[in-house]
Amino acid sequence: MVMASDAAPGARAPNGSVVAAEATHFGKLAADWWNPHGSSAMLHRLNPARLGFLRQAIDAHWNGESQGFTPLAGKTALDVGCGAGLLAEPLARLGAAVTGVDAAPENIGAARTHAEAQGLAIEYIAGGVEAVAGRQFDLVTSLEVIEHVADPAGFVAGLAAALAPGGLMVVSTPNRTPLSRLAMITLAEGVGAIPRGTHDWDKFLTPDELTALLKAQGLTVGEVRGLSFSPTRGFTISDDTRLDYLVTAWRA
Fold this sequence. Notes:
The protein is of the alpha/beta class.
């Protein structure tokens, strides 16, 4: 779940949104992506809460009924930084024609293989958000990705350009707080719950910073919701944005 490239490690890639070292890091994890107890276990634990939030946002935006199985039928969806398809596959099952983009080729290979085994027709593209330049989608998602890109403002501009009129965007990312540094880097990376070197705390964005980038692209920003962890309930959507948060946006 990363935007990266083949440029020199840490350098700005030719397409502007990606960092080569990130592709190398996440590409090494590709084969283990779908193992719920492996290196991507934290994403598997996050996914139910994220999918619940997404479903509520989809129903609210398109006035859908929560009981329906395919609220995205007839709509297109783009997942930027799709990894091996942990979000793209549920979006396809919700009825969308899904395109997943990730700059680590290993992730795209793993995503294609897994989708085919599930009988899901998902378009996967190796590259940055620029790989879909000129195309627009009803739903644009990018979860836990913007903290890995070279240029957050340029990345948000790419997401906004891919959003069709009347469409919905959902972005999530860790907040830059003492709690996120302690929980995600000192503790989680320290004990191996998250692969060491996954995060750079200085690249985390606060809700104010991210919403400012979205508004600069002419988008209307919805309510910011926190993604919190409870020892008894796991990850839940809450009002506490100190660890991680989700934002919806659309064109007015």
